[in-house]
Amino acid sequence: MFKNIFYAVFLFTFLLLIGTERTFAETNLIVLESPYSFDKTVKAIEQAIRPNNMGITAKINAQANLAGAGIKIRGNQIFEIFRPDYAKRIFDRNLQAGIEPPLRIYIYEDGTKTFVVYRKPSSIFKPYDDPVLMDIGKKLDLILEKIIKTAFNI
Description:
Blueprint: H1 2-20, E1 29-33, H2 38-49, E2 55-61, H3 62-67, E3 76-82, H4 84-93, E4 103-110, E5 113-119, H5 121-125, H6 131-151
Antiparallel strand pairs: 1-5, 2-3, 3-4, 4-5
């Protein structure tokens, strides 16, 4: 029973975000429509991560997790990615900023379209008001952009 309630709350949160993602401009939430199907998008993103010098720390398949609770949703997956050298630089600079990694790339189906969403790392580190963390964020912005360009053959 508790497990079903947990998954229902989880699903509600995701659906709420799906309906409002384009209103988060001030947080530098990047929402891109994929030129591919959901499965091809997931595969393309996954294959683009390592060649762009990032590692996958976790792959969360919300669709499969919710199916385990008897709840059916369309494609919905998250890649958590990062690099140990960047993590060490962040920890050395500000241990509180250690809450920010890993970065997340969210892929979901909405109707017949597939979307890829991520938050610009520079916006994640902006509240720390630290030029070193901002520099790290800007470098990570470029890496995420390269991952997307690689995945979408841009």
